Amino acid sequence: MKIATALTAIAVIGLSGSAFAQNAPMPGGASNPPPGTSHSPGTSALPPSTTGTARAGALDSSNTTGAQAAAQEKFKEAGFSDVKGLSRSTDGSWSGRAVKNGVEVGVVMDTSGKIAVQ
Fold first, then answer.
1. Distance CA 18, CA 115 (A)
2. Residue 107 lies in a domain
3. Eight-class DSSP state of 83
4. Is 117 helix (H, G, I), strand (E, B) or coil?
């Protein structure tokens, strides 16, 4: 009888320890970052791309499309330099930043090719 009681007590204690471990609170913060992320979490800089693609919204992206390069050339023909951050809106117009007469301004080109300063 004493052996059965002792074995039951041992079993209950053993099972309660396992149950406690399953309900233990998780430590705060990421303890195992995803592969390819070796940057410091406190910095605002994004880690380098692991796929070779440009970051979304990068102003100095060297991965320009043909249409973007053509729009950039039209801005340069209109007297703008250092054209950057070009993005195409849903209506087909282009907008970005460029320098004219030593001043950086916002620029827009509509679908007909008309360029305006914002």
1. 70
2. yes
3. E
4. strand
Tens digits of residue pLDDT in 90-106:
999 999 999 999 999 99
- For residue 52, being part of any structural domain is answered with no
CA distance 118 to 95: 9
Give the structural domain span for 107: 66-118
- The type of residue at 74 is K
pLDDT digits (tens, 9 = 90+) for 63-75: 567 888 889 999 9
Residue 4 lies in a domain: no
81 DSSP assignment: E
Amino acid 116 reads: A
Number of domains within the chain: 1
Closest listed residue to residue 65, CA positions, set 90, 36, 94, 37: 94
Tokens 């620029």 appear where? 107
Which positions ≥6 away from 39 have C-beta within 8 Å?
A: 45, 46, 47
- Asked whether residue 16 is assigned to any structural domain, the reply reads no
